[in-house]
Design a protein that fits this description.
The mean pLDDT is 78. By secondary structure, the chain is an alpha+beta fold. The longest helix is centred in the last third of the chain and has 12 residues. The radius of gyration is 14 Å and the shape is globular. The protein has two helices and nine strands; from the N terminus they run E-E-E-E-E-H-E-H-E-E-E. The protein has a five-stranded mixed sheet with strand order 2-5-4-6-7, with helices on one face. Strands 1-3-8-9 form a four-stranded mixed sheet, with no helix packed on it.
Length: 134
């Protein structure tokens, strides 16, 4: 029996996998992360952010793997005003970038009262948002 390997993606790191490994963000309140995936190519990028820009590293990684039909899942509070001031520009910055790149965006909203993590299976593109008790 093969056990699934999980790799924790820390803030602002990007993760890709060729062999179907799972990746997850470390727990964080407010804006949790971003998953950009192409079902045809079975590849994706998982990003996690707190207060620094992820647009440049994300652009570099997307250029590297050349997804043909990318879709993005943004996980976060969904309400910019509820984010801390220093974090509030990040969801807008990433949304603007994805829109400019014509990447379809799906938003998963999570509550602010608990930590969450985003778990992704790179083999089939499935993901889930898991609440973590602190």
């Amino acid at each position: 029996m093969v056990r699934n390997k999980y790799f924790v993606v820390e803030e602002n790191a990007l993760f890709t996998s060729q062999d179907g490994n799972f990746a997850k963000t470390s727990p964080l309140l407010q804006c949790v992360g971003l998953f950009v995936y192409d079902g045809m190519q079975k590849q994706g990028v998982l990003a996690h952010w707190a207060s620094n820009s992820i647009v440049q590293p994300l652009k570099s990684k997307l250029d590297l793997i050349r997804l043909r039909n990318p879709e993005a899942v943004m996980v976060g509070c969904g309400v910019v005003a509820e984010c801390p001031f220093e974090d509030s520009y990040i969801p807008m910055e990433v949304t603007d970038f994805l829109t400019k790149e014509r990447i379809l965006i799906r938003v998963e909203r999570v509550g602010l009262d608990c930590a969450t993590e985003l778990r992704v299976n790179f083999l089939n593109g499935t993901y889930r948002v898991r609440k973590v008790t602190i």
